[in-house]
Design goal:
Bound molecules: NADP nicotinamide-adenine-dinucleotide phosphate
Radius of gyration: 21 Å
Shape: globular
Length: 344
């Protein structure tokens, strides 16, 4: 075990607009000591996810904000270093919510034991965890895709979108991704098997999307908003479904947009075309389905039916920069920080 202490990244201040490195600071505390009934966890992987931007803000939300000076929240995959708890052995891999730090003590509540031998432990933060589950439930429960329909997926190269599109292909749909840049769009088609992918930075986005969706759009998996939503709206078919998963293009907004109020145009389109839009917060709304999802997704991965890409950043100190990059589309695949070596 490291004798350098427990390095933590804490929220130093709340951002206005895009977060900067000044919103974070690094502290070192003593490594906590587990009491009877507790375990000491050493973080190996830390997940970085868009929802963390919301936790940096104290605006009302579905979850409380991180307090100033407190460790940033986040899901972690850790190893048990010391165990005084009968459900955990030294060396076990666990999924928990230890945040942006190297060590944490737990009484085992909310800690999911993955076992001693796990082929891809970090997958519990991505394709087999929250993002994969979000894709699965959002698409299948809310999107209700049918064979032959057109499904459009925003942020298609990312953790959630990449899985949404691949499941939609397994269901026999015509699948079109929207992603940032040629490299991501190429990979979405060639590596993930989408039928097409258009670049949201291309000024011709609206025309390119219309060409890729000659029969209109039946399901739009929304994670972005902004110009991506603007391009999708005119193409939505009657009775289209929109799983409203996220609005990442707006997470750094600090003021309301100036210009024409488009509420009537947007709501009018929903009304006239009988479009169903449903927001969801994955574990609040669908937590009881997690076991079924894990079984199905494991089977698909084993059969090679779902491909998965990670973007692994080395070192806890790089987490703030990597997180800032996530909000600018710099990640390519599920963004994970490798905090420490698997074995010491
Ligand atoms: N509702 C829920 O329970 C739930 C759960 C998990 C995730 N989510 C939401 O799902 C979405 C995707 O999350 P994820 O974990 O899969 O992240 P991700 O896609 O791996 O990473 C975020 C991606 O968003 C895109 N992006 C960022 N800023 C953008 C902008 N201004 N315009 C267009 N695209 C932009 C970037 O991709 P490009 O380079 O391709 O633009 C970036 O790589 C987020 O909105 C997140 O909040 C919701």
């Amino acid at each position: 075990m490291s004798n350098l202490g427990n390095r933590q990244i804490v929220l130093a201040s709340r951002p206005t607009g895009a977060p900067t490195l000044n919103n974070f600071s690094t502290e070192t505390q003593a490594i906590p000591v587990p009491a009877h009934g507790e375990i000491l966890l050493r973080t190996i992987y830390l997940s970085l996810d868009p929802y963390m931007r919301g936790r940096m803000s104290d605006a009302p939300s579905y979850a409380p904000p991180v307090a100033i000076g407190k460790v940033m929240v986040g899901s972690t995959v850790s190893r048990v270093e010391i165990s005084h708890h009968h459900d955990f052995a030294v060396g076990d891999w666990v999924l928990s919510q230890n945040g942006w730090q190297q060590y944490a003590v737990s009484d085992g509540k909310g800690v999911f034991n993955l076992g001693a031998h796990v082929e891809h432990p970090s997958y519990a933060l991505g394709v087999l965890g929250m993002p994969g589950f979000t894709a699965y439930m959002g698409l299948l429960e809310i999107g209700q895709p049918k064979a032959g329909e057109t499904v459009v997926v925003a942020a298609a190269a990312g953790a959630v979108g990449s899985v949404v599109g691949q499941i939609a292909k397994l269901k026999g749909c015509h699948v079109v991704g929207i992603a940032g840049g040629e490299r991501k769009c190429k990979s979405v088609v060639e590596d993930l098997g989408f039928d097409a992918c258009v670049d949201h930075r291309d000024p011709a986005l609206k025309n390119l999307l219309a060409e890729a969706c000659p029969k209109g759009i039946d399901v739009y998996f929304e994670s972005v908003g902004g110009v991506v939503f603007d391009a999708v709206l005119p193409l939505l078919n009657t009775c289209a479904r929109i799983p409203l998963c996220g609005l990442i293009a707006h997470y750094n907004d600090s003021k309301s947009p100036v210009g024409q109020d488009r509420t009537a145009q947007v709501m009018g389109t929903f009304l006239k075309r009988r479009i169903r839009v449903q927001g969801f917060i994955i574990f609040d709304d669908y937590g009881t389905h997690f076991g079924d999802f894990q079984k199905q997704m494991s089977d698909w991965l084993t059969a090679g039916k779902i491909k998965y890409r990670e973007d692994v950043v080395e070192g806890l100190e790089r987490a703030p920069d990597a997180f800032i990059g996530l909000l600018q589309g710099k990640n390519f695949g599920k963004l994970v920080v490798q905090v420490d070596a698997i074995t010491k």
